[in-house]
Amino acid sequence: MEDKILGLHHITAIAGEARRNFDFYTRVLGLRLVKKTVNFDDPYTYHFYYGDKVGTPGTILTFFPWEGIQKGRRGTQQVTEIGYSVPENSLDFWLKRFEANKVSYQKVAERFGEQYLSFKDPDGLPFGLIVPKSADARQPWETAEVGAEYSTRGFHNITVTTNKLHPTADVLTNLFGYRLLEQHVNRYRFITDTVENAAIVDVVEAPGEVIGQVAGGSVHHVAFRVDNDEVLLRFREKILNYGLQITEKIDRNYFYSLYFREPGGVLFEIATDNPGFAVDESVEELGSGLKLPEQYEAYREDISSKLAKLD
């Protein structure tokens, strides 16, 4: 059986104020807080996971909210935009919602035959809401303010900006099994046929642009999806044979991971579907309690007292 990358798994970014981040993603964008935990290396900093009802891979956006962090600088060697899929005829709703909530946005435009609405979160992280050519059948999470007819369905694409196309493109095509779908000027759209959604990576080649700085309002890394940890380890061997450095398998409680930096400079992760987000909470209770990695349980009271209150 051929090992497959199953599109995007999750995207992890850096924010500033935790309460502001929580409010924007759960209330304004209408995502579900799937898991409230802490940074493995900095337990006094939250790690938020937002997504659909069950935290399906391909819908998960995560944040490290570091209070007072400096603002990042957009440039090459970065994921420079995150695209969410939304239903047809929903963009007028989002325009009005962004206006009412003082969200920075641009007028609706078109790219590769798809309408999109660009906006930024409170830390300046760039997004696009995209009406895909084929309707996205994923079941949305809906709230009292954002109904199913408008809700995001999960990721549509990411945009990677790089000084040279081919090193990044080679990883996507030769290692991950993506193919070039189409091109417009210096934007190259790659797609995998293994999944229907969260399947697109756009690579923008910008030879003269300066390297970006990853900090507040920046993507820290992007994770690609595999079925299980057996497939994960076979990809590790494949990447080592390709000549790139890669970590050992890491247990992130809700998935297993490998990390490597692709030749264009972006930090890539490969993450498994197993065991999922319901290992320590029921689906109904996801995101309701503070979940700590085992090594920090003895310090729960101290950690809890120092984390920002969200309610």
Description:
The chain has helices spanning 18-28, 91-100, 165-175, 229-242, 300-306, and strands at residues 8-15, 32-38, 46-51, 60-65, 78-85, 109-111, 114-120, 126-130, 154-162, 179-184, 187-191, 200-205, 218-226, 250-251, 255-261, 267-275. With 311 residues, it is of the alpha+beta class. The protein contains five helices and 16 strands. The chain has one domain (8-306): 2,3-Dihydroxybiphenyl 1,2-Dioxygenase, domain 1, CATH 3.10.180. It is globular and about 50 Å long.
List keywords for this structure.
single chain, 311 residues, alpha+beta, 2,3-Dihydroxybiphenyl 1,2-Dioxygenase, domain 1, eight-stranded mixed beta sheet
In short:
This protein is an alpha+beta fold and 311 residues long. Helices cover 17% and strands 33% of the residues.
SSE blueprint:
Elements lengths: L7 E8 L2 H11 L3 E7 L7 E6 L8 E6 L12 E8 L5 H10 L8 E3 L2 E7 L5 E5 L23 E9 L2 H11 L3 E6 L2 E5 L8 E6 L12 E9 L2 H14 L7 E2 L3 E7 L5 E9 L24 H7 L5
Parallel strand pairs: 1-4, 5-8, 9-12, 13-16
Antiparallel strand pairs: 1-13, 2-3, 3-4, 5-9, 6-7, 7-8, 10-11, 11-12, 14-15, 15-16
